[in-house]
């Protein structure tokens, strides 16, 4: 059976309610789920049979019920275990996209996970997480997403993984864990507008986290991008005068951090506004 290495996440942070961010992320997640699912055993250079063409056409046309039925038929007639599981996964994905979550979950329960290859197991985990989020079973969604992303996973699938994690962590009131996923997602976004929105949301999470939790996360962080964001968030917790000084002195510590410029601009703007307000 392919093994996914589990990853550890930040403990829940008390006193923070990211409800607005959570609903924004739910909207973004819905956009990701509308995109085509990634196949694994089905290769572009394979000979496509008429039955397979019908299934692909139904999926492309948005007739997900029909696609699911056709994929199930392909699985039933397949003599190749790899393709059989591939068709079953695609059928489960199609049922989910058709709004038939129970049918999707039933098909997933038929899969022998010990026989799935790495990419098939990855697709299964994503679908389990989607089904769990739909039922607001956030603990199960987190368990399904608790793995290191396999090498050679395509960019779109990586984006989906991080977006699912962001949604899950926000629902579980784990802003720092969600921030880590925002940082990882940032490296995968090609559109400047998407990256800016992602970075702004990241900063909203970090600035709302308690100082003690930021310091604890910083002490256990090893990724330079994560360290950079946490350091800026900690600096921003200081007085406006001290914040301005620390940022101007410490800008060079993490110069390659993708969100440095945006976050620093936001911090300085907010602190300058604070110092310009009348004191009494």
Note the gap between the termini: 67 Å
Q: Mind summarizing the main beta sheet?
A: none
Number of strands: 0
Unreliable stretches covering 5 or more consecutive residues:
8-21, 26-41
Alpha-beta content class: mainly alpha
Helix content: 55-70%
**Mass-distribution shape:** elongated
Q: Tally the helices: what do you get?
A: 14
Cα-based radius of gyration, to the nearest Å: 22 Å
The arrangement of helices and strands along the chain is: HHHHHHHHHHHHHH
Mean pLDDT: 79
Strand composition percent: under 5%
Secondary structure layout plus pairing:
Blueprint: H1 19-33, H2 50-60, H3 64-77, H4 81-97, H5 101-109, H6 118-134, H7 138-144, H8 155-171, H9 175-186, H10 192-208, H11 211-219, H12 224-236, H13 240-250, H14 260-276
Helix pairs in contact: 1-8, 2-3, 3-4, 4-5, 4-6, 6-7, 6-8, 7-8, 8-9, 9-10, 11-12, 12-14, 13-14
Structure notes:
It is a single chain. The protein is mainly α and 280 residues long. It is built from 14 helices and no strands. Helix 1 packs antiparallel against helix 8, helix 7 runs antiparallel to helix 8 and helix 13 runs antiparallel to helix 14. The longest helix has 17 residues. The protein is elongated and about 65 Å long. The termini are far apart.
């Amino acid at each position: 059976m392919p093994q996914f290495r589990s990853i550890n996440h930040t403990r829940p942070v008390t006193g923070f309610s990211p409800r607005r961010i959570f609903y924004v992320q739910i909207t973004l997640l819905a956009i990701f789920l509308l995109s085509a699912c990634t196949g694994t055993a089905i290769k572009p250079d394979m000979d496509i049979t008429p039955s397979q063409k019908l299934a692909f056409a139904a999926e492309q046309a948005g007739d997900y019920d029909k696609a699911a039925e056709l994929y199930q038929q392909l699985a039933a007639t397949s003599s190749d275990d790899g393709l059989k599981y591939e068709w079953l996964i695609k059928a489960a994905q199609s049922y989910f996209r058709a709004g038939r979550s129970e049918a999707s979950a039933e098909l997933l329960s038929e899969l022998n996970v010990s026989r799935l290859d790495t990419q098939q197991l990855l697709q299964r985990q994503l679908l389990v997480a989607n089904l769990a989020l739909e039922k607001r079973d956030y603990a199960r969604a987190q368990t399904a997403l608790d793995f290191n992303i396999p090498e050679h996973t395509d960019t779109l699938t990586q984006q989906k993984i991080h977006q699912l994690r962001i949604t899950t962590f926000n629902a579980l009131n784990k802003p720092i864990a969600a921030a880590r996923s925002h940082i990882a997602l940032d490296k995968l976004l090609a559109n400047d507008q998407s990256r800016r929105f992602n970075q702004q949301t990241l900063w909203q999470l970090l600035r709302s986290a308690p100082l003690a939790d930021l310091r604890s996360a910083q002490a256990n962080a090893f990724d330079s991008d994560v360290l950079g964001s946490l350091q800026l968030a900690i600096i921003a917790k200081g007085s406006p005068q001290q914040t301005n000084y620390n940022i101007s002195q410490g800008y060079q510590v993490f110069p390659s951090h993708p969100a440095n410029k945006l976050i620093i601009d936001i911090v300085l703007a907010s602190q300058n506004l604070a110092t310009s307000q009348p004191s009494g």
